[in-house]
Amino acid sequence: MNFNYPNGKPYIPKDTAHEINMKNKKNGTYSNRGMTLEEDLNETNEYYRGRKIAIIHKKPTPVQIVQVDYPKRSAAVIKEAYFKQASTTDYNGVYKGKYIDFEAKETQNTTSFPLKNFHQHQIYHMEEVLNHGGICFVILRFTRYEQVYLLEAEHLLVFWERMVNGGRKSITKEEIEQKGHYIPLGFQPRIDYIRIIDTLFYFS
Amino acid sequence: MNFNYPNGKPYIPKDTAHEINMKNKKNGTYSNRGMTLEEDLNETNEYYRGRKIAIIHKKPTPVQIVQVDYPKRSAAVIKEAYFKQASTTDYNGVYKGKYIDFEAKETQNTTSFPLKNFHQHQIYHMEEVLNHGGICFVILRFTRYEQVYLLEAEHLLVFWERMVNGGRKSITKEEIEQKGHYIPLGFQPRIDYIRIIDTLFYFS
């Protein structure tokens, strides 16, 4: 399955954006401000791994492979493939024996976070994770303000339900400030979401 | 990064094998005997999900994307990409709040299981998962006998260490019978590994 956004713009997963960004880095245009949420989270997860705090990985981008060439004496080349929609969230792993699962999204909006950043499969998945006792949340970034929030999946599900029942198609910034947890940007780690998890009584 | 096996054979991830197998199914050559370990585990995981027993997913095959075309009014097409080596294991998820992580491999050998089926990155990852209190194991299938075993990562690490120290490059079938847990093939689910996990006192 491959797909476009409703506006006809082709869907391009974050990994590709990441690779383009990495190229810019090599060209010397690297700057902290230009780092994507994904890069910040990858750095954060590396920090957690290095310090033996938690083991969290981003899942590979799902790709539907259509045609593969097998040249003699060299590696297989994928000649035709399409981006697929993910059936789960992008990040998962283990913290103190517990299962951790989250999705990360950013918006250019300044007053609300559009729910179209998530899709129904991911919402189902988050519900399932909660039902099985996992720790599940989303990390939301307002890029204009460089503000990052952790919002527990329980709350996201309520906002999603509101939309499904005909309500607004976004979460207002005020709602995120109320129900979510602000994560101040740091140097190491960049986005210290585990500190928030520690305050949320999962381990009491 | 793309790579060949030491024998010069190109590396082809299981997903591709899976797709080829699915094609055979469509041609009417489907048989239970012909099901790959991956297909059996996917069915098993679907069963667990449907029955609300556990949420376990296979990670997508990691692919290094080199060139993408963006045709007007249609989906992005990946025109050049390579298979990458995975940095973690293939399966993970949540069972009773706990983090579960495993790798599945099969061999045509009849007397031992070659350790070249795993790579150093995966061994590191398993070690890390154990250090963080996750449940980690491998599922090993002797395809000739249609016998499946669950071997806890703790034991795999000992056999790996033995190899690194100059010892044998495989685990003998006797060792797997002794240290591992035989999983009788079922109809639903096909490979009931959660039943073994239940006997291993992780939840006492």
Automatic annotation (TrEMBL), chains A, B:
It is found in: Cytoplasm. InterPro entries: Resolv_RecU, Restrct_endonuc-II-like, tRNA_endonuc-like_dom_sf. Binds 1 Mg(2+) ion per subunit. The keyword tRNA processing does not apply. Its cofactor is Mg(2+). Pfam families: RecU (PF03838). It is an enzyme of class 3 (hydrolase). The record marks 105 as: Transition state stabilizer. Its EC number is 3.1.21.10. Mg(2+) binds at residues 88, 90, 103, 122. Keywords: Cytoplasm, DNA damage, DNA recombination, DNA repair, Endonuclease, Hydrolase, Magnesium, Metal-binding, Nuclease. Its main location: cytoplasm. Endonuclease that resolves Holliday junction intermediates in genetic recombination. Cleaves mobile four-strand junctions by introducing symmetrical nicks in paired strands. Promotes annealing of linear ssDNA with homologous dsDNA. Required for DNA repair, homologous recombination and chromosome segregation. Belongs to the RecU family. This is Holliday junction resolvase RecU.
